[in-house]
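[recover] target loaded
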Protein backbone atom coordinates (compact mmCIF):
# COMPACT_ATOMS: atom_id res chain seq x y z
CA UNK A 1 0.00 0.00 0.00
CA UNK A 2 3.00 2.32 0.08
CA UNK A 3 2.55 2.92 -3.65
CA UNK A 4 -0.97 4.25 -3.22
CA UNK A 5 -0.23 7.98 -3.83
CA UNK A 6 1.70 7.13 -7.01
CA UNK A 7 -1.06 4.80 -8.16
CA UNK A 8 -3.70 7.42 -7.52
CA UNK A 9 -1.78 10.10 -9.44
CA UNK A 10 -1.23 7.73 -12.35
CA UNK A 11 -4.91 6.81 -12.42
CA UNK A 12 -6.11 10.42 -12.23
CA UNK A 13 -3.75 11.49 -15.00
CA UNK A 14 -5.00 8.57 -17.10
CA UNK A 15 -8.65 9.65 -16.98
CA UNK A 16 -9.64 11.38 -20.21
CA UNK A 17 -12.14 14.16 -20.96
CA UNK A 18 -15.10 11.79 -21.13
CA UNK A 19 -14.38 10.33 -17.71
CA UNK A 20 -14.14 13.81 -16.19
CA UNK A 21 -17.44 14.80 -17.79
CA UNK A 22 -19.05 11.83 -16.02
CA UNK A 23 -17.37 12.85 -12.76
CA UNK A 24 -18.72 16.39 -13.17
CA UNK A 25 -22.21 15.09 -13.89
CA UNK A 26 -22.05 12.86 -10.81
CA UNK A 27 -20.85 15.77 -8.70
CA UNK A 28 -23.72 17.99 -9.79
CA UNK A 29 -26.17 15.16 -9.16
CA UNK A 30 -24.66 14.71 -5.69
CA UNK A 31 -25.06 18.41 -4.85
CA UNK A 32 -28.62 18.66 -6.10
CA UNK A 33 -30.43 15.33 -5.73
CA UNK A 34 -28.40 13.50 -3.09
CA UNK A 35 -27.56 16.65 -1.15
CA UNK A 36 -30.55 19.01 -1.31
CA UNK A 37 -33.50 17.00 -2.63
CA UNK A 38 -32.93 13.88 -0.52
CA UNK A 39 -32.42 15.98 2.60
CA UNK A 40 -35.53 18.11 2.15
CA UNK A 41 -38.11 15.95 0.36
CA UNK A 42 -39.40 14.13 3.44
CA UNK A 43 -39.35 17.34 5.47
CA UNK A 44 -41.36 18.97 2.66
CA UNK A 45 -43.92 16.15 2.86
CA UNK A 46 -44.18 16.60 6.61
CA UNK A 47 -44.91 20.33 6.13
CA UNK A 48 -47.62 19.41 3.64
CA UNK A 49 -49.32 17.55 6.50
CA UNK A 50 -48.48 13.94 5.63
CA UNK A 51 -47.49 11.33 8.23
CA UNK A 52 -44.81 8.64 8.05
CA UNK A 53 -47.21 6.11 6.47
CA UNK A 54 -47.99 8.38 3.51
CA UNK A 55 -44.36 9.46 3.20
CA UNK A 56 -43.29 5.82 3.19
CA UNK A 57 -45.83 4.95 0.50
CA UNK A 58 -44.79 7.89 -1.69
CA UNK A 59 -41.17 6.80 -1.46
CA UNK A 60 -42.17 3.16 -2.01
CA UNK A 61 -44.06 4.16 -5.17
CA UNK A 62 -40.94 5.87 -6.49
CA UNK A 63 -38.79 2.83 -5.81
CA UNK A 64 -41.31 0.35 -7.26
CA UNK A 65 -41.60 2.38 -10.45
CA UNK A 66 -37.81 2.71 -10.57
CA UNK A 67 -37.58 -1.07 -10.18
CA UNK A 68 -40.07 -1.65 -12.99
CA UNK A 69 -38.16 0.67 -15.31
CA UNK A 70 -34.67 -0.67 -14.48
CA UNK A 71 -34.37 -3.65 -16.81
CA UNK A 72 -36.06 -1.79 -19.72
CA UNK A 73 -33.63 1.07 -19.03
CA UNK A 74 -30.76 -1.38 -19.45
CA UNK A 75 -32.29 -2.57 -22.72
CA UNK A 76 -32.51 1.04 -23.91
CA UNK A 77 -28.83 1.51 -23.08
CA UNK A 78 -27.89 -1.67 -24.96
CA UNK A 79 -29.89 -0.51 -27.99
CA UNK A 80 -29.12 3.22 -28.16
CA UNK A 81 -25.98 3.58 -26.04
CA UNK A 82 -25.42 4.75 -22.48
CA UNK A 83 -25.03 8.44 -23.35
CA UNK A 84 -28.39 8.79 -25.09
CA UNK A 85 -30.16 6.83 -22.36
CA UNK A 86 -28.57 8.94 -19.60
CA UNK A 87 -29.33 12.21 -21.37
CA UNK A 88 -32.99 11.27 -21.92
CA UNK A 89 -33.21 10.14 -18.32
CA UNK A 90 -31.76 13.42 -17.06
CA UNK A 91 -34.33 15.47 -18.97
CA UNK A 92 -37.25 13.32 -17.78
CA UNK A 93 -36.04 13.32 -14.15
CA UNK A 94 -35.56 17.08 -14.24
CA UNK A 95 -39.19 17.51 -15.29
CA UNK A 96 -40.35 15.12 -12.58
CA UNK A 97 -38.42 16.73 -9.75
CA UNK A 98 -39.74 20.12 -10.84
CA UNK A 99 -43.37 19.08 -10.38
CA UNK A 100 -43.31 18.15 -6.67
CA UNK A 101 -42.71 21.65 -5.22
CA UNK A 102 -45.84 22.88 -7.02
CA UNK A 103 -47.83 21.02 -4.35
CA UNK A 104 -47.22 24.00 -2.05
CA UNK A 105 -49.55 26.06 -4.24
CA UNK A 106 -52.30 23.44 -4.73
CA UNK A 107 -55.19 23.80 -2.29
CA UNK A 108 -57.15 20.67 -3.23
CA UNK A 109 -55.77 17.49 -1.60
CA UNK A 110 -56.39 15.34 -4.70
CA UNK A 111 -54.50 17.74 -6.97
CA UNK A 112 -51.68 17.96 -4.45
CA UNK A 113 -51.35 14.20 -4.29
CA UNK A 114 -51.57 13.96 -8.09
CA UNK A 115 -48.62 16.35 -8.39
CA UNK A 116 -46.57 14.29 -5.95
CA UNK A 117 -47.43 11.02 -7.70
CA UNK A 118 -46.70 12.48 -11.14
CA UNK A 119 -43.37 13.70 -9.86
CA UNK A 120 -42.59 10.22 -8.60
CA UNK A 121 -43.49 8.60 -11.95
CA UNK A 122 -41.28 10.89 -14.05
CA UNK A 123 -38.49 10.89 -11.48
CA UNK A 124 -38.45 7.09 -11.40
CA UNK A 125 -38.39 6.74 -15.18
CA UNK A 126 -35.68 9.35 -15.66
CA UNK A 127 -33.67 8.12 -12.69
CA UNK A 128 -33.72 4.53 -13.96
CA UNK A 129 -32.48 5.55 -17.41
CA UNK A 130 -29.70 7.62 -15.91
CA UNK A 131 -28.51 5.41 -13.04
CA UNK A 132 -28.71 2.04 -14.83
CA UNK A 133 -26.55 3.31 -17.69
CA UNK A 134 -24.11 5.41 -15.66
CA UNK A 135 -22.03 2.48 -14.40
CA UNK A 136 -21.51 0.88 -17.85
CA UNK A 137 -20.66 4.35 -19.16
CA UNK A 138 -18.03 4.93 -16.48
CA UNK A 139 -16.41 1.50 -16.66
CA UNK A 140 -16.28 1.90 -20.45
CA UNK A 141 -14.67 5.35 -20.25
CA UNK A 142 -11.50 4.29 -18.39
CA UNK A 143 -8.67 1.90 -19.14
CA UNK A 144 -9.10 -1.76 -18.12
CA UNK A 145 -7.75 -2.15 -14.59
CA UNK A 146 -8.54 1.46 -13.63
CA UNK A 147 -12.14 0.75 -12.65
CA UNK A 148 -11.51 0.71 -8.89
CA UNK A 149 -9.85 4.12 -9.06
CA UNK A 150 -12.56 5.53 -11.31
CA UNK A 151 -15.42 4.47 -9.06
CA UNK A 152 -13.57 5.52 -5.92
CA UNK A 153 -12.73 8.92 -7.43
CA UNK A 154 -16.34 9.33 -8.51
CA UNK A 155 -17.44 8.54 -4.95
CA UNK A 156 -15.10 11.22 -3.60
CA UNK A 157 -16.49 13.80 -6.04
CA UNK A 158 -20.08 12.82 -5.23
CA UNK A 159 -19.39 12.78 -1.49
CA UNK A 160 -17.86 16.27 -1.50
CA UNK A 161 -20.70 17.66 -3.59
CA UNK A 162 -23.29 15.88 -1.44
CA UNK A 163 -21.72 17.45 1.66
CA UNK A 164 -22.03 20.88 0.09
CA UNK A 165 -25.59 20.07 -0.94
CA UNK A 166 -26.48 18.94 2.58
CA UNK A 167 -25.12 22.17 4.03
CA UNK A 168 -26.93 24.32 1.45
CA UNK A 169 -30.06 22.22 1.83
CA UNK A 170 -30.06 22.95 5.54
CA UNK A 171 -29.66 26.68 4.90
CA UNK A 172 -32.05 27.09 1.98
CA UNK A 173 -35.36 26.78 3.93
CA UNK A 174 -34.38 29.47 6.49
CA UNK A 175 -33.30 31.73 3.61
CA UNK A 176 -36.55 31.26 1.70
CA UNK A 177 -38.47 31.61 4.96
CA UNK A 178 -36.87 35.03 5.41
CA UNK A 179 -37.40 35.95 1.74
CA UNK A 180 -41.09 35.00 1.66
CA UNK A 181 -42.10 35.82 5.23
CA UNK A 182 -43.33 32.25 5.76
CA UNK A 183 -42.18 30.40 8.87
CA UNK A 184 -40.49 27.00 8.75
CA UNK A 185 -43.73 25.23 9.61
CA UNK A 186 -44.91 26.15 6.10
CA UNK A 187 -44.16 24.01 3.06
CA UNK A 188 -43.31 26.99 0.84
CA UNK A 189 -39.67 27.51 1.96
CA UNK A 190 -39.01 23.80 1.39
CA UNK A 191 -40.71 23.79 -2.01
CA UNK A 192 -38.67 26.76 -3.19
CA UNK A 193 -35.52 25.02 -1.95
CA UNK A 194 -36.40 21.97 -4.04
CA UNK A 195 -36.90 24.18 -7.10
CA UNK A 196 -33.47 25.71 -6.49
CA UNK A 197 -32.03 22.18 -6.57
CA UNK A 198 -33.74 21.51 -9.91
CA UNK A 199 -32.19 24.65 -11.39
CA UNK A 200 -28.74 23.52 -10.24
CA UNK A 201 -29.12 20.29 -12.28
CA UNK A 202 -28.98 22.09 -15.62
CA UNK A 203 -25.13 22.26 -15.79
CA UNK A 204 -25.09 18.49 -15.31
CA UNK A 205 -27.19 17.99 -18.41
CA UNK A 206 -24.89 20.34 -20.31
CA UNK A 207 -21.83 18.27 -19.28
CA UNK A 208 -23.56 15.03 -20.23
CA UNK A 209 -24.54 16.39 -23.65
CA UNK A 210 -20.88 16.65 -24.73
CA UNK A 211 -19.86 13.26 -23.31
CA UNK A 212 -18.87 10.69 -25.92
CA UNK A 213 -18.73 6.89 -25.60
CA UNK A 214 -15.35 5.57 -26.74
CA UNK A 215 -15.52 1.97 -25.48
CA UNK A 216 -12.10 2.53 -23.94
CA UNK A 217 -12.73 0.10 -21.09
CA UNK A 218 -14.57 -2.57 -23.07
CA UNK A 219 -11.50 -4.38 -24.38
CA UNK A 220 -10.68 -6.49 -21.33
CA UNK A 221 -11.05 -10.28 -21.59
CA UNK A 222 -14.06 -11.79 -19.88
CA UNK A 223 -13.97 -15.13 -18.12
CA UNK A 224 -17.75 -15.48 -18.07
CA UNK A 225 -18.06 -15.47 -21.85
CA UNK A 226 -20.27 -13.24 -23.91
CA UNK A 227 -22.55 -15.58 -25.91
CA UNK A 228 -25.16 -16.31 -23.23
CA UNK A 229 -26.56 -14.02 -20.54
CA UNK A 230 -24.88 -14.93 -17.21
CA UNK A 231 -28.17 -15.39 -15.35
CA UNK A 232 -26.74 -17.12 -12.26
CA UNK A 233 -24.41 -14.27 -11.25
CA UNK A 234 -27.08 -11.71 -12.16
CA UNK A 235 -29.62 -13.45 -9.88
CA UNK A 236 -27.11 -13.72 -7.03
CA UNK A 237 -26.21 -10.04 -7.20
CA UNK A 238 -29.92 -9.18 -7.29
CA UNK A 239 -30.51 -11.06 -4.02
CA UNK A 240 -27.51 -9.41 -2.37
CA UNK A 241 -28.59 -5.95 -3.48
CA UNK A 242 -32.19 -6.51 -2.35
CA UNK A 243 -31.33 -7.35 1.26
CA UNK A 244 -28.67 -4.66 1.37
CA UNK A 245 -31.12 -1.97 0.32
CA UNK A 246 -33.90 -3.17 2.59
CA UNK A 247 -31.52 -2.47 5.46
CA UNK A 248 -29.82 0.63 4.11
CA UNK A 249 -33.11 2.14 2.95
CA UNK A 250 -34.73 1.48 6.32
CA UNK A 251 -32.21 3.87 7.85
CA UNK A 252 -31.70 6.46 5.11
CA UNK A 253 -35.39 6.67 4.22
CA UNK A 254 -36.41 7.85 7.69
CA UNK A 255 -33.22 9.27 9.20
CA UNK A 256 -34.05 12.94 8.60
CA UNK A 257 -37.61 12.41 9.86
CA UNK A 258 -36.14 10.70 12.94
CA UNK A 259 -33.85 13.66 13.60
CA UNK A 260 -36.69 16.11 13.01
CA UNK A 261 -39.55 14.46 14.91
CA UNK A 262 -37.83 12.24 17.49
CA UNK A 263 -34.67 14.18 18.37
CA UNK A 264 -36.28 17.60 17.66
CA UNK A 265 -33.31 19.03 15.77
CA UNK A 266 -33.45 22.15 13.59
CA UNK A 267 -33.22 21.90 9.79
CA UNK A 268 -29.78 23.53 9.79
CA UNK A 269 -28.47 21.05 12.37
CA UNK A 270 -30.01 18.15 10.42
CA UNK A 271 -28.21 19.34 7.30
CA UNK A 272 -24.87 19.53 9.12
CA UNK A 273 -25.37 16.15 10.80
CA UNK A 274 -26.31 14.41 7.57
CA UNK A 275 -23.35 16.03 5.83
CA UNK A 276 -20.99 14.25 8.26
CA UNK A 277 -21.52 11.14 6.13
CA UNK A 278 -20.13 12.90 3.09
CA UNK A 279 -16.97 13.91 4.97
CA UNK A 280 -16.51 10.31 6.12
CA UNK A 281 -16.97 9.08 2.56
CA UNK A 282 -14.35 11.53 1.28
CA UNK A 283 -11.88 10.14 3.84
CA UNK A 284 -12.58 6.45 3.27
CA UNK A 285 -13.40 6.21 -0.46
CA UNK A 286 -9.75 6.68 -1.57
CA UNK A 287 -8.83 3.65 0.57
CA UNK A 288 -10.92 1.33 -1.58
CA UNK A 289 -8.52 0.80 -4.53
CA UNK A 290 -5.47 -0.22 -2.42
CA UNK A 291 -7.67 -2.39 -0.19
CA UNK A 292 -9.25 -3.98 -3.27
CA UNK A 293 -5.79 -4.64 -4.74
CA UNK A 294 -4.92 -6.68 -1.66
CA UNK A 295 -8.29 -8.28 -0.85
CA UNK A 296 -10.09 -8.15 -4.18
CA UNK A 297 -13.25 -6.20 -4.90
CA UNK A 298 -15.42 -9.06 -3.61
CA UNK A 299 -13.96 -9.26 -0.12
CA UNK A 300 -13.76 -5.47 0.05
CA UNK A 301 -17.49 -5.35 -0.71
CA UNK A 302 -18.17 -7.96 1.98
CA UNK A 303 -16.21 -6.01 4.59
CA UNK A 304 -18.16 -2.89 3.68
CA UNK A 305 -21.46 -4.69 4.30
CA UNK A 306 -20.35 -5.85 7.75
CA UNK A 307 -19.23 -2.37 8.78
CA UNK A 308 -22.50 -0.91 7.45
CA UNK A 309 -24.49 -3.21 9.74
CA UNK A 310 -22.31 -2.25 12.71
CA UNK A 311 -22.83 1.44 11.95
CA UNK A 312 -26.60 1.13 12.29
CA UNK A 313 -26.37 -0.03 15.92
CA UNK A 314 -25.48 3.33 17.57
CA UNK A 315 -28.40 4.92 15.72
CA UNK A 316 -30.78 2.20 16.91
CA UNK A 317 -29.62 1.76 20.50
CA UNK A 318 -28.72 5.30 21.61
CA UNK A 319 -31.20 8.10 21.00
CA UNK A 320 -28.74 10.98 20.93
CA UNK A 321 -27.55 13.35 18.17
CA UNK A 322 -23.88 12.42 18.70
CA UNK A 323 -24.44 8.66 18.48
CA UNK A 324 -26.75 9.19 15.52
CA UNK A 325 -24.05 11.21 13.75
CA UNK A 326 -21.32 8.64 14.51
CA UNK A 327 -23.46 5.71 13.38
CA UNK A 328 -24.63 7.56 10.27
CA UNK A 329 -21.05 8.48 9.33
CA UNK A 330 -19.82 4.92 9.84
CA UNK A 331 -22.68 3.36 7.91
CA UNK A 332 -22.51 5.71 4.95
CA UNK A 333 -18.69 5.67 4.75
CA UNK A 334 -18.78 1.86 4.65
CA UNK A 335 -21.58 2.08 2.09
CA UNK A 336 -19.37 4.27 -0.08
CA UNK A 337 -16.55 1.70 -0.08
CA UNK A 338 -18.98 -1.18 -0.57
CA UNK A 339 -20.78 0.54 -3.44
CA UNK A 340 -17.61 1.41 -5.36
CA UNK A 341 -16.07 -2.05 -4.91
CA UNK A 342 -19.33 -3.82 -5.68
CA UNK A 343 -19.93 -1.85 -8.88
CA UNK A 344 -16.48 -2.79 -10.19
CA UNK A 345 -17.05 -6.40 -9.13
CA UNK A 346 -20.36 -6.77 -10.95
CA UNK A 347 -19.30 -4.77 -14.04
CA UNK A 348 -16.19 -6.93 -14.55
CA UNK A 349 -18.01 -10.20 -13.77
CA UNK A 350 -19.80 -10.14 -17.12
CA UNK A 351 -18.89 -9.39 -20.73
CA UNK A 352 -19.22 -5.73 -21.83
CA UNK A 353 -22.32 -6.55 -23.87
CA UNK A 354 -24.14 -7.73 -20.71
CA UNK A 355 -23.14 -4.82 -18.45
CA UNK A 356 -26.29 -2.80 -19.05
CA UNK A 357 -28.41 -5.90 -18.32
CA UNK A 358 -26.46 -6.62 -15.13
CA UNK A 359 -26.75 -2.98 -14.08
CA UNK A 360 -30.49 -3.00 -14.81
CA UNK A 361 -31.09 -6.17 -12.78
CA UNK A 362 -28.97 -4.93 -9.87
CA UNK A 363 -30.76 -1.60 -9.94
CA UNK A 364 -34.13 -3.35 -10.06
CA UNK A 365 -33.28 -5.34 -6.93
CA UNK A 366 -31.90 -2.23 -5.28
CA UNK A 367 -35.07 -0.23 -5.82
CA UNK A 368 -37.28 -3.18 -4.85
CA UNK A 369 -35.43 -3.31 -1.54
CA UNK A 370 -35.77 0.45 -1.08
CA UNK A 371 -39.48 0.23 -1.91
CA UNK A 372 -40.00 -2.52 0.65
CA UNK A 373 -38.19 -0.56 3.35
CA UNK A 374 -40.00 2.68 2.49
CA UNK A 375 -43.46 1.10 2.47
CA UNK A 376 -43.04 -1.12 5.52
CA UNK A 377 -40.82 1.34 7.39
CA UNK A 378 -43.51 3.94 7.90
CA UNK A 379 -45.86 1.36 9.40
CA UNK A 380 -43.06 -0.19 11.48
CA UNK A 381 -42.32 3.19 13.02
CA UNK A 382 -45.98 3.67 13.89
CA UNK A 383 -46.27 0.20 15.42
CA UNK A 384 -42.89 -0.36 17.09
CA UNK A 385 -40.88 2.85 16.87
CA UNK A 386 -37.64 3.89 15.21
CA UNK A 387 -35.42 1.57 17.28
CA UNK A 388 -37.08 -1.60 16.03
CA UNK A 389 -36.97 -0.39 12.42
CA UNK A 390 -33.25 0.35 12.65
CA UNK A 391 -32.49 -3.04 14.27
CA UNK A 392 -34.39 -4.84 11.50
CA UNK A 393 -32.35 -2.80 9.02
CA UNK A 394 -29.07 -3.98 10.58
CA UNK A 395 -30.21 -7.61 10.36
CA UNK A 396 -31.14 -7.20 6.69
CA UNK A 397 -27.68 -5.84 5.84
CA UNK A 398 -26.16 -8.83 7.65
CA UNK A 399 -28.34 -11.15 5.54
CA UNK A 400 -26.95 -9.47 2.41
CA UNK A 401 -23.41 -10.03 3.70
CA UNK A 402 -24.22 -13.70 4.37
CA UNK A 403 -25.45 -14.32 0.81
CA UNK A 404 -22.47 -12.56 -0.71
CA UNK A 405 -20.03 -14.29 1.64
CA UNK A 406 -21.36 -17.71 0.62
CA UNK A 407 -20.97 -16.70 -3.03
CA UNK A 408 -17.33 -15.69 -2.52
CA UNK A 409 -16.59 -18.86 -0.54
CA UNK A 410 -18.14 -20.98 -3.32
CA UNK A 411 -16.06 -19.20 -5.97
CA UNK A 412 -12.90 -19.76 -3.93
CA UNK A 413 -13.72 -23.47 -3.51
CA UNK A 414 -14.14 -23.78 -7.27
CA UNK A 415 -10.78 -22.12 -7.87
CA UNK A 416 -12.23 -19.04 -9.56
CA UNK A 417 -9.74 -16.54 -11.02
CA UNK A 418 -8.45 -13.75 -8.80
CA UNK A 419 -10.72 -10.73 -8.59
CA UNK A 420 -9.96 -7.43 -10.24
Amino acid sequence: MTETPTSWLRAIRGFDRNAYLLFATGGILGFTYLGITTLLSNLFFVRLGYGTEVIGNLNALFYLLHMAFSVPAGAVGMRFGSRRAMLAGGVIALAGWGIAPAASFLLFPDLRMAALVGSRVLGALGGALFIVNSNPALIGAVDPGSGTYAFAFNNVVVSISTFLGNVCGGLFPPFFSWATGKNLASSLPYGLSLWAAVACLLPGLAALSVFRETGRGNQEPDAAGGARAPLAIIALIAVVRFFREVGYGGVTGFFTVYLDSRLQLSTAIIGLLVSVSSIASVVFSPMMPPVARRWGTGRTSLAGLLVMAAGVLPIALLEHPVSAGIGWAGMTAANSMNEAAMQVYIMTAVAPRWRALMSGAANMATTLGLAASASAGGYAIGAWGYRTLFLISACSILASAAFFGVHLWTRARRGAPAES
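[recover] notes: The CA atoms of residues 167 and 271 lie 5 Å apart.
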